[in-house]
């Protein structure tokens, strides 16, 4: 397959986005209520929201997605960029899709004046971590979480 074209997700691409979103959730053993998925879709296309989505396209097929969110920080004047979700279709793995999507988020964050891009992944996600280790530093922080 050729190198991916990275571009914003369009409002008419719900049918292409849904399988990737569901694949991402399945990979992490997560479920999201349909109304939350609908809300997420709406937010991704609302210019007043800090949420954004890019997709990778290869030969006319959407093969990957990334969602990212800008937020304020008490440590910087500009925003931080949280890369929340990243997923590549099984058939497109190993073709540079994930790398291209992350680098596109870096470019968007830089353009927005963000001072950092950060994300989380599971420790056992060895394949993704091999890529991430070439693109970013691990600062050594541990995440704590309380579900409410």
UniProtKB/TrEMBL annotation:
Q: Which UniProt keywords apply?
A: Acyltransferase, Transferase
Query: Please, which domain of life does this record's source organism belong to?
Result: Bacteria
- The residue ranges of the N-acetyltransferase domain are 4-148
PROSITE patterns xrefs: GNAT (PS51186)
Signal sequence: where?
none
The record's annotation in SUPFAM superfamilies points to: Acyl-CoA N-acyltransferases (Nat)
Which Pfam families does the annotation name?
Answer: Acetyltransf_1
What's the protein called, per UniProt? GNAT family acetyltransferase
Q: What is the lineage of its organism?
A: Bacteria, Pseudomonadati, Pseudomonadota, Alphaproteobacteria, Hyphomicrobiales
